[in-house]
Design a protein that fits this description.
Layout lengths: L8 H15 L2 H10 L11 H14 L3 H11 L7 H17 L6 E11 L2 E11 L9 E5 L10 H10 L3 E4 L15 H18 L4 E6 L1 H11 L5 E5 L17 H9 L7 H9 L4 H4 L7 E6 L8 H4 L7 E6 L10 H16 L2
Parallel strand pairs: 3-4, 3-5, 5-6, 6-7, 7-8
Antiparallel strand pairs: 1-2, 2-4
Amino acid sequence: MSFTWPLDPRDLFVERYPQMTLGLPAEEVDAVRAAVTEMWPDRPGGWAYEWSALAARHAAAGRHREAAQAYGWAKFPSLADGPKRTALARQVEQYVLAAPGFPVEFERRVLTVPYRGGETALPVHLMAAPGLPADAPVVLASGGVDSWKTDLHGMWEQLALTLPARLLLFDLPGTGESAHLPMTPDGGAEVILGLVAVARAAGNGRVGHFGISMGGYYSARTGLTGLVDAAVVLGGPVERSFAAGRGFAFGMDGIVGNALGFDAAPSRAELDAAFASFDLRPALDLDVNGPMLVVNGTEDVHVPVEDTLVFEGRRDTRVELIPDTGHCAISRFGEAMAVITPWLRETLVG
């Protein structure tokens, strides 16, 4: 189920430009920005059309990594229609073609994990520094509702090269290659519990979980309930974000509505009802958490600062608020990773 919704592409360029230029030259992003005039129509001036044209040029020249990045923006921010789904399929194709050139060990695998009394298939990527022993720890990692495992390749690659652990990268239910599953608190947690079991069997038994944005909701959940040995929450919503009546910026209502499995734009009441079950207050009231690191920017327009500060004073928990940056500290991302990487290393390996 999916739907489109009114969305001004100019707003997306305003918010995501720093992220776009992490993986593509600024002049190429600027050219697409100048060409795009509308969000959904599949024609010149359309978002998916113009980004896909850039991606196709990279693909034709054999620049598969850049092609995968551009197709990633073509399918952004949600798999709400056919052109977006086509762009995702082409992104995966180009990414696999690029993989032999990665400076890390890489494997694409489809896992089978428990889901609602049955099983479901879940495409994942395994990534590690060359020569990493098989008995290293494993870190589950995911992005959020609109930036998925393949989109964040550059970040994962750097983390894999500097961390003595193997990364198991996945898309959250309701997103990316897991879009066939609606995003629900318990359903998502069940999928991740299955991935934790795979990770414990695959390495030395020690497992971390690094979640970004909505992925941080699920890593907060695994951390608070003590299911993993180290949990990193980067820009994760946990409590105040799900309060009734809260609005979203930059088209996030439609992005989240698609991830939740609605087939038309949900009303405020429908979103409030869906979000009520996400509130992590019951888990926050427990005292069974494992080691946790909670990080965000002070100027986040999506996640209230209270959802970071609520972790202050908990045992085995470190909280870092980075000033003068927004959601997931994206404009000061190097500073965030300079905290996250050594913390994961020390917590998982010592």
